[in-house]
Amino acid sequence: MRQQILLQRDAGTAVLLISTELEEIFHLSDRILVMYEGKIAGELPPDRELINEIGLMMAGNKVDL
């Protein structure tokens, strides 16, 4: 399944991935949109150094990057 997602991503196909596993999201994503209470809380690159910011957004906190 992951290989198929990567092939589609690399071919330029839009893929919507919903997961609670951050490592999976970092591995498969070109960009990460965090949602909180049905609204987009932020957009970030899949950079593990931003894991704290992603966690804050997931909890509904505003983050300035």
Give an overview in words.
- This protein is an alpha+beta fold and 65 residues long.
- The protein has one domain (2-58).
- It has helices at residues 2-10, 22-28, 51-58; strands spanning 32-36, 39-44.
- It has a two-stranded antiparallel sheet with strand order 1-2.
- A hairpin with a 2-residue loop joins β1 and β2.
- The longest helix has 9 residues, at 2-10.
Secondary-structure topology with pairs:
Layout (H helix, E strand, L loop, with lengths): L1 H9 L11 H7 L3 E5 L2 E6 L6 H8 L7
Summed up:
This protein is of the alpha+beta class and 65 residues long.
Strand content: 15-25%
Instruction: Give the helix proportion (percent range).
Output: 25-40%
Round the mean pLDDT to the nearest integer and report it.
91
Strand order of the largest sheet: 1-2
Number of helices: 3
Describe the global form: elongated
State the major sheet. Answer: 2 strands, antiparallel
By helix and strand content, what is the structural category?
alpha+beta
Poorly predicted tracts of residues: none
SSE string: HHEEH
- The tally of beta strands, per DSSP, is 2
Number of separate structural domains: 1
Distance between the termini: 33 Å
- Rg result: 12 Å
